[in-house]
Design a protein that fits this description.
The complex is a heterodimer of chains A (438) and B (219). Chain A has 438 residues and is an alpha/beta fold. Helices cover 49% and strands 7% of the residues of chain A. Chain A has three domains: 10-138, Fumarate Reductase Iron-sulfur Protein, Chain B, domain 2, CATH 1.10.1060; 145-303, Rossmann fold, CATH 3.40.50; 311-431, Rossmann fold, CATH 3.40.50. In chain A, helix 1 (10-17) runs antiparallel to helix 7 and helix 12 packs across helix 21. The longest helix of chain A is centred in the middle third of the chain and has 17 residues, at 242-258. The chains are: A alpha/beta (438), B mainly alpha (219). Chains A and B meet through helix 3, helix 5 and helix 15 of A and helix 2, helix 5, helix 9 and helix 12 of B. One protoporphyrin IX containing FE is lined by residues 9, 13, 16, 84, 87-88, 91, 93-94, 97, 111, 114-115, 118, 153, 156-157, 160-161, 163-164, 174, 177-178, 181-182, 184 of chain B.
C-alpha cells in the first residue's frame, strides 16, 4: 500500500519526530485495550469488505472512485493495519493515519446509510484520532484550538473581559436600531441561556447582534453568561482529547445550571450540538444533556409558530438548503428546518440527495480546523458537493451551521459557483418587522 | 472410502456441530461480557424498538440507500443468503440424515428445486469472487480472510452439487462436501462468517443510536 498524498504539517511532523516504535506500540495497545471493547472488535470482524459503503463518501465520489478514499478503505489503511500488525507500526505510518483520520473523514456518518451491517466508520476514525492525540501527533491548527480550550475554556483564546466587552459592544451597536435592546448578562432564573461558539465573538459578531435583536423583538426572557462555560464549541471532541471534551461540556452545563435557567439555546452550530447530545455527555456519564438544549433551528421555529416573529416580507429569490450532518443526520431536525425555510422563503429548491442523505460540506469533523495546509483536501475532496449545489441552479444557500458556512464558502469560491450563503438568523433578521426608530 | 464416510458423518459431524454451537455461544457471551465491561456508553442506548425498525428496513432489498445504490450486489446478496439458509435446512439428503441419527423429520424441498438453488448459490459466489477481483474498491479491501470466508461456503455447495449429479467420484465428492460443510460450521464463530452471529446486533445497535439518539433513519 503506498500513500502518495502526504501533506506537510508542522504539528504532524513535530509529533512524529518524537515517536519511538516502543512508544507507538504501548500507546496503541493502551487505547485498544483500555478504551475500546466489543464495539470496535465487532466492527473489525463483521465488516465483510463488500465495498457497499464506497459511494457514500464525498471524498470517494470526488476522487473518481479512488478506493483509498472509500470509508472501508480508510479504515483498511488505518485501524485495519494497526490490528493486522498488532500495533507494531512505524512513525511514518502514524503520520499517514493521522492525515487520513483528521483530514479525509468528516465523521459525517453518511456511510451508515450504505452499510448493511451497520458499521460506524465515524467511530473507527474517531478512535484512530484518539490514538494520534495520545501519541501527540495532531495537525497544528486544530491542536491550537484544543490548547485554547484547555487554557481558556474557549476555542479562540478569548480572555474573559474580551468576551464580556464583545457582548456589551454588540448591545451598544444594536441600540441604534432598537433603543431598548438588552443583552442581559448572568441573569439568574432566565428562561433561556443563549450560548454560542467562540468564533462568533471573534469573527462573526453580527450573529450575536442578530440573535439579540430577534430575541428582544420576540420578547424572549434570555441571558448570556460571562464566565467560562459560555462557549459551547468543542474541538477537543475532534482532536481526540476526550478528557478536555468532558471538561468543556461539564463547565458549559454547570454554568447554565448555576444560573438556574430553564434551558440552553445554542446558535446555528453543528458540531457543538453533536458534543452535547452524543459525545461530550457520554464522556461525562450523562445519558443525555442534564439541562435541556435547543438548537436555534428548533428555537426559531418555535418563535414562529407562537407568532412571536412577524415578517415584513418573504425571501423571494429561489434558495436551496443544506442539511448539516450534525443537526439532521445527527439529530433529526429536518422537519423544523423545512418548516422554517418555507415560512421565510417563497421558493425553496431542494438539493439532491437531501435530508439525512445529504452530502457533507467536508469542513466538519474538525477538518476545516486543520487549517490552510489541508484546504485543498477539502476542495478536491468535495467536487461532488459543488456539483450538487450547482445543479440546483439557485444563487443562495441556507446553511444552519458555522462549519458548513466555512466549508461551503470555500467550495463556492474554488468551484466559482457564485453563490451566497446564509444562516437562518441572517434571513430572519433581514426579513422581520422592525420597530420604527426616530 | 466407506470408513472415511462413516467418520465424517459420524464423529466429525458431532465435533463440527459441537464447536459451532458451543463456539458460537462462547463468542456471543464473551462479546456481551466485554460490551458490558467496556462499552457501557453504547450498550446503554440499545433499544428493541429502534433495533427492530432498522433490521426490518434492511431486510427489504430495495428499502435502503445502500441496497438501492448497489442493486446487483443487493440482489445477489439476498439470493445468496436465502439459498444458504434454506437449502441445508430443507434438503432431502440432510433431513434423511437427521431422521437416521435422531429420528426427527420435517418437510423437505423437492430435489430439483434444491438443486437449482444450489447452482444459483454457486453462481452468486462466482459473482462475489469476480467482484473481489475486478471491482477496484472491493479489491482494495480484500484480504486472505475474505477469500477464505467466500471459499468455504462456495466449496461446500459446489461439492454438494457435484455429489448430487454424480460428477467425478461421487463418494469422494460427498466426503469433500461434508468435510467443507463441517469446516464451515466450525469456522462460523471464528472467522468473518461470524457476521452471522453478530450482524443483527451491529445492525440493531446502529438502529438504536439513529432512532433513539439521533432521531433519524439509518437506511
Ligand atoms: C443469517 C445471518 C446473516 C446475515 C444477516 C448476513 C449478512 C451479510 C451481509 C449484509 C453481507 C454483505 C453483503 C455483500 O457482501 O454483498 C454478507 C456477506 C457475506 N456473507 Fe452473510 N449473513 C448471514 C449469514 C451468513 C452465513 C451463515 C454465511 C456462511 C456460512 C455467510 C457468508 C457470507 C459471505 C461469504 C459473504 C461475503 C460475500 C462477498 O464476498 O462479498 N453469511 N452477509
Ligand atoms: C455436517 C455436515 C453435513 C453433512 C453430513 C451433509 C450431508 C449431505 C448429504 C448426505 C447430501 C446428499 C448428497 C446427495 O443427495 O447425493 C448433501 C447434499 C448437499 N448439502 Fe450437505 N451436508 C452437510 C453440511 C452442509 C452444509 C453446511 C451445507 C451448506 C451450507 C450443505 C449443502 C449441501 C448441498 C448444496 C447439497 C447438494 C444439494 C443438491 O445439489 O441437490 N451441506 N449433504
Ligand atoms: S467522511 Fe463521512 S461518509 Fe466519508 S468515511 Fe467519513 S463518515 Fe463516512
Ligand atoms: S463498512 Fe459495511 S459497507 Fe463498508 S465494506 Fe464493511 S461491511 Fe461493507
Ligand atoms: S460542517 Fe456541517 S455538513 Fe459539514 S460535517 Fe458539520 S454539520 Fe456536517
Amino acid at each position: 500500500m503506498t500513500f502518495d498524498r502526504k501533506i506537510e504539517d508542522a504539528g504532524l511532523t513535530r509529533g512524529v519526530s518524537r515517536l519511538t516504535p516502543q512508544r507507538i506500540e504501548d500507546t496503541l495497545r493502551q487505547v485498544l485495550e483500555g478504551e475500546t471493547g466489543a464495539k470496535l472488535k465487532l466492527y473489525a470482524e463483521t465488516c465483510m469488505r463488500c465495498g457497499m459503503c464506497s459511494e457514500a463518501c464525498h471524498y470517494y465520489m470526488s476522487h473518481d472512485g479512488d478506493p483509498s478514499y472509500s470509508p472501508a478503505g480508510k479504515v483498511h489503511q488505518t485501524m485495519g493495519e494497526i490490528l493486522r500488525k498488532d500495533c507494531k507500526v512505524t512513525p511514518e505510518f502514524v503520520y499517514q493515519m493521522a492525515q487520513i483520520a483528521y483530514t479525509e473523514c468528516n465523521l459525517c456518518r453518511r456511510c451508515v446509510h450504505y452499510c448493511p451491517l451497520g458499521i460506524d466508520t465515524g467511530y473507527i476514525m474517531s478512535t484512530v484520532r484518539r490514538m494520534c492525540h495520545k501519541l501527540g501527533v495532531t495537525p497544528q491548527y486544530i491542536q491550537d484550538t484544543a490548547h485554547s480550550h484547555a487554557a481558556t475554556m474557549n476555542q479562540m483564546w478569548l480572555k474573559d473581559d474580551e468576551w464580556m466587552d464583545t457582548l456589551q459592544w454588540q448591545e451598544d451597536e444594536a441600540r441604534d436600531e432598537m433603543p431598548n435592546l438588552r443583552i442581559p448578562l448572568d441573569k439568574e432564573g432566565a428562561e433561556i441561556y443563549y450560548s454560542v461558539i467562540a468564533p462568533e465573538p471573534k469573527f462573526r459578531t453580527q450573529l450575536i447582534y442578530q440573535a439579540a435583536f430577534i430575541m428582544n423583538e420576540a420578547g424572549v426572557d434570555f441571558t448570556m453568561p460571562t464566565s467560562p462555560g459560555w462557549d459551547n464549541s468543542d474541538m477537543c471532541m475532534f482532536s481526540g482529547d476526550f478528557e478536555m471534551m468532558g471538561r468543556l461540556k461539564k463547565i458549559h452545563f454547570e454554568s447554565a445550571l448555576d444560573l438556574k435557567v430553564k434551558k440552553i439555546v445554542m446558535g446555528e452550530c453543528g458540531h457543538a450540538f453533536r458534543s452535547i447530545y452524543d459525545q461530550g455527555n457520554r464522556w461525562d456519564g450523562w445519558d443525555m444533556y442534564p439541562i435541556e438544549v435547543v438548537h436555534s433551528v428548533e428555537f426559531f421555529w418555535e418563535l414562529f409558530e407562537a407568532g412571536k416573529i412577524k415578517l415584513r416580507e418573504k425571501f423571494h429569490e429561489p434558495i436551496t438548503i443544506h442539511d448539516p450532518c450534525n443537526i439532521i443526520r445527527g439529530r433529526g431536525l429536518m422537519e423544523q428546518s423545512r418548516k422554517l425555510a418555507h415560512a421565510l422563503c417563497d421558493n425553496v429548491v431542494e438539493m439532491h440527495p437531501n435530508l439525512e442523505h445529504n452530502y457533507c460540506c467536508a469542513a466538519g469533523g474538525g477538518v476545516i480546523n486543520c487549517g490552510p495546509p489541508f484546504k485543498n483536501v477539502r476542495m478536491k475532496g468535495n467536487r461532488i458537493k459543488a456539483e450538487q449545489l450547482k445543479a440546483t441552479g439557485v444563487k443562495t444557500i441556507l446553511a444552519p451551521c458555522h462549519n458548513c458556512h466555512g466549508g461551503l464558502e470555500d467550495l463556492v469560491h474554488y468551484y466559482e459557483l457564485g453563490m451566497d450563503i446564509k444562516f437562518f438568523g441572517d434571513l430572519i433578521y433581514d426579513l422581520m418587522e422592525k420597530p420604527e426608530v426616530e | 472410502m466407506n470408513s472415511i464416510y462413516a467418520f465424517v458423518v459420524g464423529p466429525l459431524a458431532w465435533i463440527a456441530w459441537g464447536v459451532f454451537i458451543f463456539g458460537s455461544l462462547y463468542k456471543v457471551v464473551s462479546m456481551y461480557q466485554l460490551a458490558k465491561a467496556k462499552d457501557g456508553s453504547s450498550l446503554h442506548y440499545m433499544s428493541f424498538k429502534y433495533g427492530m425498525r432498522s433490521i426490518l428496513h434492511w431486510l427489504n432489498p430495495v428499502g435502503t440507500l445502500g441496497w438501492q445504490s448497489n442493486p446487483y450486489t443487493a440482489l445477489v446478496t439476498f439470493v445468496f443468503h436465502l439459498c444458504l439458509v434454506i437449502v441445508p435446512l430443507f434438503l432431502m439428503g440432510h433431513v434423511v440424515l437427521w431422521d437416521q441419527f435422531f429420528g426427527i423429520t420435517w418437510p423437505t424441498l423437492p430435489d430439483t428445486i434444491a438443486d437449482i438453488m444450489s447452482i444459483v448459490f454457486v453462481a452468486c459466489c462466482v459473482y462475489f469472487g469476480l467482484r473481489r477481483f475486478l471491482q477496484r474498491d472491493v479489491r482494495f479491501l480484500t484480504t486472505g480472510k475474505d477469500w477464505i470466508a467466500l471459499a468455504i461456503p462456495a466449496l461446500t455447495f459446489l461439492f454438494g452439487v457435484l455429489a448430487y449429479h454424480q460428477i467425478g467420484n461421487d463418494k469422494v465428492m460427498l466426503v469433500l462436501h461434508i468435510l467443507c460443510g463441517e469446516i464451515m460450521l466450525i469456522s462460523i464463530p471464528f472467522s468473518r462468517l461470524s457476521h452471522m452471529l453478530f450482524g443483527f446486533f451491529t445492525r440493531a445497535y446502529m438502529g438504536s443510536e439513529f432512532g433513539g439518539v439521533r432521531h433519524s433513519k439509518d437506511w
